[in-house]
Write a structure and sequence with these properties.
The chain is an alpha/beta fold and 276 residues long. It is built from twelve helices and eight strands. The chain folds into two domains: 155 residues, Rossmann fold; 99 residues, ProC C-terminal domain-like (ProC C-terminal domain-like fold, Orthogonal Bundle). The chain is elongated, with a radius of gyration of 21 Å. It catalyses: L-proline + NADP(+) = (S)-1-pyrroline-5-carboxylate + NADPH + 2 H(+); L-proline + NAD(+) = (S)-1-pyrroline-5-carboxylate + NADH + 2 H(+).
Length: 276
């Protein structure tokens, strides 16, 4: 399979790395273009198996699946630019929300999807939010999903729900990292242990908790019940957390929604904004 990438910024290069890491070289060829030759040269220096194209049009002509990984303000211009080169058999996937699905379907002759990735795909993990165009058959949707499964867990969402869903899946790693960092730093201040030790303990705790939730069938309440014995130390700690956390995530979601509207990108924003 030949996959093309128009744009090799932070998210485009991350997806390229993830696909190369997850797929045997005999099954995958990647062609990429970038309006900055320096960025493209940096990418190919790290991944010499990536083929380069001079233009978006050439990328499309040499690919079966095309990922559009440009800035929101550039998306429509690039779509118009490559329009004459897209054929019915192409799969065209935008990774930001600058253009709605129905707008792309009205313009393009090919199969159309939107995929909002996450930084967690670096670890071949986490969620890709997926929206498929109305013209795609079940088999075609499954084909795209099967490629995304190599680097993530694809979850189908409604386009109107993308704002809040991307807060959880794409912005969430940064929000969670802030909380874990504060937990570690508090242990340094209050317990006198080294920052390296605190960081290691918190990271491994987070890794293990994630496995309980995703691999061992635990729900949030199961972990709380098993660890927070009534009257015990953990239960007392949770009493401290409750008043501090009450409503804080509601306010977080209100703030991110307001920020998106302020920038004129309803109902969501591109994933790069979440992950910087």
């Amino acid at each position: 399979m030949r996959i093309g990438f128009i744009g090799t910024g932070s998210m485009g290069s991350m997806l390229i790395r993830s696909f190369l890491q997850s797929t045997p070289s005999s099954d995958l060829q990647i062609v990429a273009c970038n309006r900055s030759p320096e960025k493209l040269a940096h990418l190919t220096a790290r991944y010499p198996q990536v083929e380069t194209a001079a233009t978006p049009e050439e990328t499309v002509s040499r690919s079966s699946i095309v990922f559009l990984c440009v800035k929101p303000n550039d998306a429509m211009g690039v779509i118009q630019q490559v329009l004459p080169y897209l054929q019915e058999q192409h799969y065209f996937i935008s990774i930001n929300s600058a253009v709605m699905l129905d707008e792309m379907e009205a313009l393009l002759p090919c199969r159309v999807s939107k995929v909002i990735p996450s930084l967690t795909q670096v670890a071949l993990s986490g969620v890709s939010l997926v929206m498929h165009g109305s013209r795609m058959s079940h088999e075609e949707r499954r084909f795209v999903d099967s490629w995304l499964e190599r680097i993530s867990k694809p979850i189908i969402v409604e386009e109107g729900d993308l704002r809040v869903c991307s807060d959880l899946s794409s912005c969430g790693p940064a929000f969670l990292a802030v909380m874990l960092r504060e937990f570690a730093m508090a242990a340094v201040r209050q317990g006198g242990i080294s920052r390296d030790l605190a960081d290691e303990l918190v990271k491994e705790m987070a890794r293990g908790t994630g496995k309980l939730l995703t691999e061992e069938g635990f729900e949030f309440e199961d972990i709380i019940r098993r660890v927070a014995v009534p009257g015990g130390i953990t239960a007392e700690g949770i009493k401290v957390l409750h008043p501090s956390l009450h409503g804080v995530f509601d306010q977080l979601l209100v703030t991110t929604r307001s920020k998106a509207k302020h920038h004129g990108v309803p109902p969501t924003e591109r994933p790069q904004d979440c992950e910087r």
